[in-house]
């Protein structure tokens, strides 16, 4: 029935963000034609949170060791937009995509739904 998810990020500079996923995060990818890269994302989870405002969506990347991941990505020139927060469910920060977008990065402290 459902075989996977396809996440779409809209960007002011899609080429720069594709290069970021390819060269900085080093995600495997295929060329769907004309340089249109589609990336293999790591295993994922979907959580539904209540809201009193208009429904929206958020992308957060997960890692096993936030301090080590931040250090490795910072060494590759990644800009972090928020200090690390220690929350009951995990350690959280955010990074800037070259196209101007922001993506969360966290080390979960909750049980994982995948793997």
Walkthrough of the structure:
With 115 residues, the chain is of the alpha+beta class. It has helices at residues 14-24, 66-75, and strands at residues 29-31, 37-39, 60-62, 80-87, 90-96, 102-108. The strands form 2 sheets. The chain has a 4-stranded mixed beta sheet, with helices on one face. The mean pLDDT is 95.
Quickly describe the structure.
By secondary structure, this protein is an alpha+beta fold. Helix content is 18%, strand content 27%. The mean pLDDT is 95.
What's the SSE blueprint?
Elements (H helix, E strand, L loop, with lengths): L13 H11 L4 E3 L5 E3 L20 E3 L3 H10 L4 E8 L2 E7 L5 E7 L7
Parallel strand pairs: 3-6
Antiparallel strand pairs: 1-2, 4-5, 5-6
Biggest sheet layout: 4 strands, mixed
Gyration radius over CA: 15 Å
So what's the overall shape?
Answer: globular
Give the number of helices: 2
Strand order of the largest sheet: 3-6-5-4
By secondary-structure content and strand pairing, the structural class works out as: alpha+beta
Summarize model confidence as the mean pLDDT: 95
Order of helices and strands: HEEEHEEE
As a percent range, the share of strand residues is 25-35%
Q: What's the β-strand tally?
A: 6
How far is the first residue's CA from the last residue's CA? 20 Å
Helix content: 10-25%
Low-pLDDT stretches are: none
């Amino acid at each position: 029935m459902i075989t996977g998810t396809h996440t779409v990020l809209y960007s002011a500079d899609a080429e720069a963000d594709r290069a970021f996923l390819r060269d900085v995060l080093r995600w495997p990818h295929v060329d769907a034609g004309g340089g249109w890269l589609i990336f293999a994302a790591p295993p994922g989870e979907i959580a539904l949170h209540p809201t009193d405002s208009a429904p929206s969506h958020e992308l957060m990347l997960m890692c096993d060791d936030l301090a080590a991941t931040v250090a490795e990505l910072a060494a590759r020139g990644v800009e972090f937009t928020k200090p690390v927060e220690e929350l009951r469910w995990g350690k959280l920060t955010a990074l800037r995509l070259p196209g101007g977008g922001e993506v969360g990065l966290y080390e979960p402290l909750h049980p994982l739904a995948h793997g």
